[in-house]
Specification:
Oligomer: single chain
Strand content: 5-15%
Structural class: alpha/beta
Helix content: 40-55%
Shape: globular
Number of strands: 7
Distance between the termini: 41 Å
Radius of gyration: 18 Å
Strand order of the largest sheet: 3-2-1-4-5-6-7
Number of helices: 9
Length: about 260
């Protein structure tokens, strides 16, 4: 019984912000954080109905939903400020909000309107979340953990979706620089990089069902037996957010069933 209690209290008393928390990896992580004793989980998204539904299902005494478009710096600042004002501090920032390329985007036909939109979310929005969470942690003397969602796309080039590959390389650069700069404050910054996950966003991007996306990814996954799910990524985020990884910083934790080592 004691062992079970320890396993379920890795985040006891912690206040966490999760962007992109209304569905997919963000939602799975919010539910896992609640299971492990987080005092308050603030999920931020632009999917208001979904976000409210997730917060209610977890329990509004420990999970709140706030609308936040990460491309708007003032909204990100307000998200962090509101969390500190209402709950005293920010211990964990899971900067997870991101989008996929709107098209295949090969270099010779690069559409810069689509490029700019993707970078506004995946890079600028990510940097804003790290910036304001780090400020709150420094000002509050909190030795916190910041986790960003990267991708295996940051480990190699691609024959298509050039803008997406570029954006995830930028996320990795942000994490590595932030970990160097924030280490003096006792703040850890890491990245979790999944391979293809059949999330609602991915399914919508491909115009396919979850089963169809699973079949699409199956041939490229060396580790056979089970499809990669949002909960597998959430497990990695939990590890990076809690004391189990207290000396891990600047690390890119790949969750890909061996994809990058093919």
């Amino acid at each position: 019984m004691a062992e079970s209690s320890m396993q379920r209290s890795k985040l006891e008393g912690k206040v966490a912000i999760i962007t992109g928390g209304a569905s997919g990896i963000g939602e799975a992580t919010a539910r896992l954080f609640a299971d492990h004793g987080a005092r308050m989980i603030v999920i931020a998204d632009i999917q208001d109905e979904l976000g409210q539904r997730v917060a209610i299902s977890i329990g509004t005494h420990r999970c709140k939903y706030l609308h936040c478009d990460v491309t708007d710096e003032e909204q990100v600042k307000a998200l962090v400020d509101s969390t500190v004002q209402n709950y005293g501090q920010v211990d964990i920032m899971f900067s997870n909000a991101g989008i996929i390329s709107g098209s295949d985007q090969i270099l010779l036909d690069l559409n810069f309107s689509q490029f700019d939109r993707l970078f506004a979310v995946n890079v600028r929005g990510m940097a804003a979340c790290v910036k304001y969470a780090a400020r709150a942690m420094v000002e509050g003397h909190v030795k916190g953990s910041i986790v960003c969602t990267g991708s295996v796309a940051a480990s190699h080039g691609g024959k298509r979706r050039t803008d997406y590959h570029m954006s995830k390389h930028a996320v990795l650069g942000l994490v590595r620089s932030a970990s160097v700069q924030l280490g003096v404050h006792g703040i850890r910054v890491n990245c979790v990089s999944p391979c293809g996950v059949a999330t609602p966003l991915t399914c919508q991007s491909y115009g396919k069902s979850m089963e169809e996306v699973d079949k699409l990814y199956e041939p490229i996954m060396p580790l056979k037996g089970e499809a990669l799910r949002a909960r597998h990524v959430a497990d990695a985020v939990l590890f990076l957010a809690c004391k189990d990884s207290e000396l891990v910083s600047g690390h890119d934790l790949v969750v890909d069933g061996g994809f990058v080592n093919r």
